[in-house]
Amino acid sequence: MIHQPDKSETDAERVAAAVDPDGLVALVQSAVRIPSVTPNEAAIAAWALGQLEADQWPTTGSTDVNGDRSNVFATTGGSRLDGSGRELGRSLLLAGHLDTVHADGWREQWVGTERESPYAAPIVDGEIWGCGVADQKAGICMIVEAIRAVNRCGFRPSGSVTALFVADEESGQAGSGISAGMHAAVSAFRSGFLPKPDFAIYTEPTTSAIYSAQMGFLIAEITVTGRSAYFGRPELGADALKAGHELLARLWQHSDDIAQLACHPLVGRAFLVVTEVRSGGNVAVPGDFSASLIRKILPGETVDHAATGLRDVVASIDLPDITTSITFTAPRDHPLGGTPSEVRIDHPGVATLATSIEAITGTAARLEGAPYWSEGPFLRDLGIPSVYFAAGDISNCHTSFERLNIDELVTATRTLAHFVASWCGLDPIGATDAAK
Length: 436
Ligand SMILES: [Zn+2]
Known about the structure:
By secondary structure, this protein is of the alpha+beta class. The protein is built from twelve helices and 23 strands. The chain has helices spanning about 5-15, 20-30, 40-55, 105-110, 135-150, 180-190, 240-260, 305-315, 350-360, 375-380, 405-425, 430-435; strands at about 60-65, 70-75, 90-95, 125, 125-130, 155, 160-165, 200, 210-215, 215-225, 230, 265, 270, 270-280, 285, 290-295, 325-330, 335-340, 340, 365-370, 385-390, 405, 425-430. The strands form seven sheets. Strands 1-2-7-3-8-21 form a six-stranded mixed beta sheet. A hairpin with a 2-residue loop joins strand 1 (about 60-65) and strand 2 (about 70-75). Helix 5 crosses helix 11 (about 405-425).
C-alpha cells in the first residue's frame, strides 16, 4: 500500500524523532578518530562500509578509485515498482567525501589541553572538536543515522536512496585532490552501475542552510623570468621582481574589474586573491618571480572565459628581457578548474528540503550560496539536481578550530530523516520485502 500524504507527514515526523542523539554523537566521534587525510582514505572507507553493512542497506559495496583507495556506496528502498517498472517514490542520492585536510599546527595550538590531538574528538561546551568533524564526517554520519532512523520506525524509503562516499575531494596534499573519487563515481553512474537519482544532497557543511548555488574557481601559478645580475651592476640584469610588482598591481586591478561586472544573488561578486608570491634571495637583481592565485567564478561565467582574462593580464606585462607564463594547476570537473553551478530554487527537491527544515526547526529555511567549491557540478553534468546541506560551519574548517555543535548536528540529522521520508516516501519493511 502507498501511504497517503497526511499519513506520510506524520510518518516523516516519527522518523525525524527516531534519530538517536547519543548514537549519532558516538558515530561522529568514532569517524573523527580515524585519520583520513587525502589520499589515505582506506581506513575510513572500510569503517563507513562496515556501518552501512551493519544496517538494512540491501546493496553495499566499494569501487576502486586507484590503488588501495575506494569509494563506498550503498542503496536501499526503491523495490516497489509501478506497472511500467518505475519506482513508486522519488529517488535520492546522499553524497559526501571521506577525506579531510591535514591537521598541521593543531597540536601546537592546543598542546596541554583536551583538544591536543586532532583525532581525539573531545566534547567541549556542547561541541565535538577534531580534524574533519564538520568537513565532513558529520555529513557522512548524518546520512548513516538518518537511514537508521527510517529503519527504526519499521520503514524503508519508497524511492531508492543511494549513499555515496567518495575519496579525493580535498585540496592541499601533493598529487591528490583532483576529485579522483568523483570521477570514478561519474563513470559508475554513466555505465548504469549506480542508479541516477531524481535529486541529490551533498553533505558539505552549510550551517544547516540550503546551498543551492556555488562558485567556480581557477588556481593559477604565474612565473616571471628575467635575468639575475650582481647588485652593483643592475643594468646587466632584468629585474623579475619589479616586473612581478607591476603584474600584481594589474592582477588586483583585474580583481576590482571583474567584481564590477555582476553580483549573483546567492554567490556575490567575482574576485581573485593572490595567495603567495616568491622572488629573490641573493644579493643580486632578482631573476625570477612567481605568484599563486585563486579566481572566484560566478554562475553565468565560464571557466574558459575567466582563464582568458587572467592570461591577458599576464601577457600584458611587456618589458625588455622579461618573459611570463601562467598555468592552471587544479583541474576538477573542467581541465582548468572547477565550474560554478546552481540549481533552480523552485526545484521540488529544494522546496521539499525547505519544508523539512521548517518542520523540524520551526523557522524558515535559509537559501544561500556556498562560499566554496565542491563536487556538485559533477552531479549537474549527470543531469542530477543537487544542493549542499549539513550541520557545520565551513568558516572554522581547515583550521585548528574545527568543531561541530551537537544540537545543530542532531537537528540537521532529524531534518535529513524527515526529508528522506517526505521526498522518497516510506514503505513498511515487511510490505517492501513481501513485494520483492
Ligand atoms: Zn568538504
